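Review form for a predicted model. The reviewer records the input and the model, then writes brief findings.
Reviewer: anonymous (R2)
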Amino acid sequence: MIETILVTSAYIAAQIFSDITSLKIVSFMGFSMDAGTLIYPITFTLRDLVHKVAGRKAARVIIVAAGVINLFMAALFWLVSALPYDPSAGPQPDWDSVLAPVWRIVIASIIAEIASELTDTEVYQFWVTRVTRQHQWLRVLVSNSVSVPLDSLIFVWAAFGGIYSNAVVWSIFWANILLKGIVTIVSMPAIYLVPDRHLKE
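Model under review:
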């Protein structure tokens, strides 16, 4: 129970942080990259942890719930940005220019997250029920190797295609793949932090 609460909370928090920071494009190791990629890759391993401790059904619910929460967050940010500043409060930081949602990025991010994480769920489930439950690190590697490219492909083209040049969009894609691959390898040992439960669900 405690493990489920912790990994679920971490998963949803990482999804929220990544969606907020995706609004900024940064330079990383010579690539163009949305800043959300700095935190988002860990969600794939966290999803694996949720799956391992709570089962496939719970993982599916949490993935969709995270998408709904992110959509609600974007709507709240939009509402706050639409409200006028109170002049009696004195000068305030330009909140609107930073956190007012860019709806195309928000929608692209949510679609990519749900599609790739649900795919990750099915690959993970197939691996542990039809291939092997041994070598737990391998289940993380296999499921992420399918879901990470899918997520990156959907997100970068849905969010930035037609806005930036094709070269920049592909640069963002390859930066995503590179960083997510590194995070996958570094985070694989985390799969041993929680017990195996509900894998037949």
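Findings: The radius of gyration is 18 Å.
Further findings: Helices lie at 2-21, 42-54, 56-82, 95-99, 103-131, 136-160, 166-187.
Recommendation: see findings above.
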